[in-house]
Amino acid sequence: MNQPVLSIDIAKGKSVAAAFTSYGVQVKKPFSFSHSPDRVSSLLSVLAQLEEATTLRPTVVMEATGNYSKPIASFFYSHGYPVFMLNPLTTHELKKRSTRKVKIDPIDPIRIANAFYLGEGTPLMPVDEKVTELRFLCRQHSQWKALLGEVQLQFHSILDLAFPGYDKAFQNIFNPSSIQLLTKFPSPSALLTADKEDILTILMLNRRGRTWNEEKYAQLLGIARSSLPDPCGSQAHIFAIQNFIGLFKAYQEGITALEKQMESLVQDSSTYHLLRSIPRVADYCGNDSR
């Protein structure tokens, strides 16, 4: 196969490359380079030399190693070079089959080139920048939702120590009035000694009537009187509740910001509006995080 190739073994912050004019014809031995703009740009001269020597546009080949390979692959693609990505399992299998066990990195760009010449790898396809951003934001959203769920689980376990029975007063203890109530009165004794109007002012955040909130106030007092918190480490429990409330609010704000950014990216997408026109198809981001 008479295809010039620049093969790259990607690693974090530093990689190893080698140049070939065709299968088995290596014209530049493996050399390392850092991922600084200057050092990566210097590889363009290697590609230019390959093109001059063969009159063919060189192909850049590397393993798909996630965050490490993406910036390098995008750099060469943006400069007009075809980029092929290899499944790391492919080169790993080639390494296992090798009769000569070499433990140094320079041999890997050779295996990467050989795998490409043997027909392995898929071309890097252009992806709309907004789609790329949206994918990243979606992954962030999923991760933040998972972290929020973990915070909520841990918050429940601490609340059971500091204020047993509190969750019976609210269908969702993470609603704004409940969170603000626990912020000011995180223990039965704190609630029982609080001014009634202070409590009612917080409860009224739920936008229900005075009568309903009077009943809720009475229910909370009954729970507080019958609540038996763990006396050992009570101040530590209260401190933990306050910390978890801070984390909960921070994750909520972060998730809301992510959702707003995602929504702004899809407003110009005809596909998005088409999907939203289907009955019972909602936004990706539901209201459960709010």
Question: What does this 3D model show about the protein?
Answer:
The chain is of the alpha/beta class and 290 residues long. The chain folds into two domains: 122 residues, Nucleotidyltransferase, domain 5; 160 residues, Helix Hairpins (Orthogonal Bundle). 56% of the residues lie in helices and 12% in strands. The chain contains twelve helices and six strands. The protein has a six-stranded mixed sheet with strand order 3-2-1-4-5-6, sandwiched between helices. β4, α3 and β5 form a beta-alpha-beta unit. α4 crosses α5 and α6 packs antiparallel against α11. The chain is elongated, with a radius of gyration of 30 Å.
Q: For the report, how would you describe the main beta sheet?
A: 6 strands, mixed
Helix fraction by DSSP (H/I, runs of at least 4): 55-70%
Task: Quote the average pLDDT.
Answer: 88
Classified by CATH, the class of the largest domain is Mainly Alpha
* End-to-end C-alpha gap: 58 Å
The total domain count is: 2
Radius of gyration: 30 Å
Q: List unreliable stretches of 5+ residues.
A: 101-105, 285-290
Secondary-structure element pattern, one letter each = EEEHHEHEHHEHHHHHHH
Please tell me the CATH architecture of the largest domain by its name: Orthogonal Bundle
Order of strands, widest sheet: 3-2-1-4-5-6
CATH topology of the largest domain: Helix Hairpins
Structural class: alpha/beta
DSSP, total strands: 6
From the spread of the alpha carbons, the general shape counts as elongated
Number of discrete helical segments: 12
Strand content: 5-15%
